[in-house]
Design goal:
Blueprint lengths: L1 H10 L6 E3 L13 E3 L7 H4 L6 E3 L5 H4 L4 E10 L5 E6 L4 E7 L5 E6 L17 E6 L4 E9 L14 E2 H36 L2 H20 L3 H4 L11 H21 L2 H4 L1 H22 L5 H26 L4 H24 L7 H40 L4 H40 L4 H31 L8 E4 H11 L1 H6 L3 E5 L6 E4 L1 H18 L5 E9 L2 E8 L6 H5 L22 H11 L3 E6 L5 E8 L16
Parallel strand pairs: 1-4, 12-14
Antiparallel strand pairs: 2-3, 2-4, 4-9, 5-8, 5-10, 6-7, 6-9, 11-13, 14-15, 15-17, 16-17
Helix pairs in contact: 4-5, 4-12, 4-13, 4-14, 5-7, 7-9, 7-10, 9-10, 10-11, 11-12, 12-13, 13-14, 14-19, 15-17, 17-19
């Protein structure tokens, strides 16, 4: 107690406290920051003694103010808030032991830092870690910081500015949502390009996959997300330097991609030699960092980043002038990335703040580049397909034109199936990770809003992919029916239960009209369920709020029949005439803003025809529609489809 009193008496002659006021522009603690003149490993009691000497310093980070690796600093803080407020002080250091000494002599001690496991940190802030400071109204307290940090390490020092906890959490939610979206899109595009590499064996696609993969790893490391997936024993040895090595590999992959995609060896040989020099420079910066040269390594990497961006753009211009068509798409796609990348790198070399808005702008440029590159690569695919078709037509001559067209169509179907299959895997992963976030963070409702949006969008895309897979299977005649005796009443009841949530959300009424004795039919249960599911999905999609949907099932005269009746807007004669054509979209619009692929009804009709039946529709504008699937009840295939009955 005597120690605390003497220390506080000494502080009365120290620098003025830093005032923390909510709602005002936050001030950094550097204005009142002092460093202990003595052994950085000294205990707190020695540092807080009246004989301890402190001197003002201008920065908290040892790489900037010349302090030793372990040192003490202190700052006096005064709350201008009318209520108790928790402040978060972000610190870009390896480890810090913070002690908050209050006016009554009590003190609060905690430990945080990049090398401290998440479970031991007082704040959930991933990167940079944060120190929690809780102050009463008008309270003045002294914050002592014992900092351990490697001088010259690869870090991104930020200004030490205390921020109200509520404000910081709001910013963290926004940043996490944007980062997860960015990384998720990057990973999905990496899988897409991996599919292209497997399909065409073009090494430029593999180089771009590596660029996307290492870019995702780089940003995940910089934002601290890797810590979430590391085992507890690994968390203390996690270093921000991992992000730099990921950046080196990403730059190597991007440079090699540019060389391969633009054919610089043949079209721009001088620039190809320059790009080879860039590869050597990036590798050298990584080796320097590996041996601890963290001042020279990243600086050399930044210089070669400028050289790489300029050289790849010049190579694109040269390839375009030599008549290489995809080069113009490369220039269009890479323009934003190169522009923002040069600005970001120059700001880094000048020592400017790049942690916040600069990083967001660069990621926006990268995202624009990746999406436009997807278009450019698809154009290249079309070029490859055209060249392949032309070669076949030249060899086969005029009489083989029809065979060449059939082969091209088969190739298109195969590519569509492979694309849909490979896209389903990353989307399933995205859904799984969104579920994992909900499980691992049950007390973060703010994240649940983002995961719900991610999951809903991914499920919509999965439904489209499933439609594409079924379409390609139907085209290739690869669907084989496996008939079983199926309880149609149970099937209809199960589907109705699945749609209860959507029906309730749209304030609709879904009723079942089933006979006392459940009807049975011999059909393929999975495929028949898909037929009825498509019809019920359309009814829910186009029926307005407050509308009625009725499901009936019956077996009569050797025919099994399921009717889906709705009170929607009805169909015009023109819509009915082209109802079962692929990619045909109805004139009415979904009442809940749902999307439509234009494949559902065509798939349902073809599956019904595989059963030896068909789908018939009865509809009038303004009076709703009735879709009826009619198939033989005792046979999986008829020689001819049953007559087109009008629904009852």
């Amino acid at each position: 107690m005597v120690l605390s009193f003497v220390s506080l008496l000494f502080l009365a002659f120290a620098q003025a406290p830093v005032v923390l006021a909510p709602g005002e522009a936050p001030a950094g603690i550097e204005a009142g920051l002092e460093a202990y003149v003595g052994d950085g490993a000294a205990p707190f009691e020695a540092v807080a003694a009246d004989s301890a000497r402190f001197e003002p310093i201008s920065s908290l980070y040892p790489a900037e103010n010349g302090q030793p690796t372990t040192y003490w600093a202190r700052v006096r803080l005064r709350s201008a808030s009318p209520e108790r407020t928790t402040w978060i002080l972000p610190l870009s250091v390896d480890e810090v032991r913070a002690t908050l000494l209050r006016a009554d002599g009590t003190r609060q001690t905690f430990r945080t830092g990049r090398h401290v496991p998440l479970a031991e940190r007082p704040s959930e802030l991933l990167d940079p870690p944060g120190v929690e400071i809780e102050l009463e109204p008008a309270e003045t307290a002294t914050l002592y910081l014992q900092i351990r940090h490697r001088i010259g390490g690869y870090d991104d020092p930020i200004e030490a500015v205390p921020v109200p906890e509520s404000t910081l959490r709001s910013e963290q939610r926004r940043r996490d949502g944007l980062q997860f979206l960015f990384i998720g899109i990057t990973i999905a595009l990496a899988f897409y390009n991996l599919f292209l590499y497997v399909s065409f064996r073009d090494p430029s696609y593999l180089a771009y996959v590596l660029f996307l993969a290492f870019s995702s790893l780089h940003w995940a490391s910089h934002e601290g997300y890797l810590t979430l997936f590391l085992p507890g024993t690994w968390s203390p040895v996690y270093h921000l330097e991992w992000g730099f090595f990921a950046l080196v590999f990403a730059a190597l992959a991007y440079t090699q991609f540019a060389r391969l995609f633009l054919h610089t060896v043949e079209l721009a040989p001088r620039l190809d030699r320059a790009l080879q020099f860039v590869l050597v420079g990036w590798a050298a910066s990584g080796v320097m960092a590996l041996f601890g040269a963290w001042n020279a390594g990243p600086t050399l990497a930044a210089l070669f980043a400028l050289f790489m961006l300029a050289a790849t753009f010049a190579a694109g211009v040269q390839s375009h002038r030599r008549g290489f068509r995809p080069a113009r798409y490369y220039l269009l796609a890479s323009g934003s990335f190169i522009f923002f990348g040069i600005g970001y790198t120059v700001a880094y070399l000048l020592g400017m703040e790049v942690h916040g808005i600069g990083r967001t702008v660069l990621q926006s440029g990268m995202l624009m580049e990746m999406l436009l590159f997807a278009v450019a690569l698809s154009v290249r695919i079309r070029i490859l397909n055209t060249e392949r078709a032309d070669a076949l037509a030249a060899r086969e001559a005029a009489e083989a034109t029809s065979d060449a067209l059939r082969e091209a169509n088969d190739l298109k179907t195969q590519l569509l199936g492979i694309a849909a299959h490979d896209l389903r895997s990353p989307l399933t992963g995205i859904v799984g990770f969104s579920d994992l976030i909900d499980v691992e963070a049950p007390d973060r409702p703010d994240l649940h809003e983002f995961t719900t949006t991610i999951r809903r969008s991914a499920m919509r895309m999965l439904r489209l992919i499933e439609d594409l897979l079924i379409t390609t299977a139907l085209d290739g005649q690869r669907i084989e029916l496996r008939p079983e005796t199926v309880d149609l009443g149970a099937l209809v009841r199960d589907l109705a239960a699945e749609y209860e949530g959507r029906v309730r959300e749209k304030q609709q009424r879904l009723t079942l009209d089933l006979p006392p004795v459940s009807p049975f039919a011999r059909v393929d249960p999975e495929r028949f369920r898909e037929i009825v599911d498509n019809l019920l999905s359309n009814a829910v999609k186009y029926t307005p709020p407050g509308g009625d949907i009725r499901l009936t099932a019956q077996v009569s005269d050797g025919l099994a029949r399921v009717d889906v009746r709705d009170s929607g807007p009805g169909l015009s004669p023109d819509d009915q005439a082209s109802l079962f054509q692929r990619f045909h979209r109805l004139t009415p619009t979904p009442t809940g803003g749902e999307s439509s692929s234009g494949l559902g009804l065509s798939i349902a009709q073809e599956l019904a025809q595989l059963h030896g039946g068909r789908i018939v529709v009865a509809s009038r504008l303004g009076e709703g529609s009735t879709f009826s699937v009619i198939v033989p009840s005792h046979s999986t295939r008829l020689a001819a489809a049953p007559p087109a009955e009008a629904p009852a």
